[in-house]
Amino acid sequence: MSNPAINKKCDLCEKKAIGMQILGCVQQTVCEEHAEKILIAMKPGESKNCGACYYVRYE
Length: 59
Known about the structure:
mainly beta
């Protein structure tokens, strides 16, 4: 798994990442364009555990 403190670019497009989402067994560092709606709605510094999914919004 990538270290979110090091990888601050989106895994999909290299734009500035807003957070990390773990969907089942897949971890992604994502920008606002590629983030799930729940991650976009979170406040900076917030994290959420939703069953098999886990989200961390960067500060």
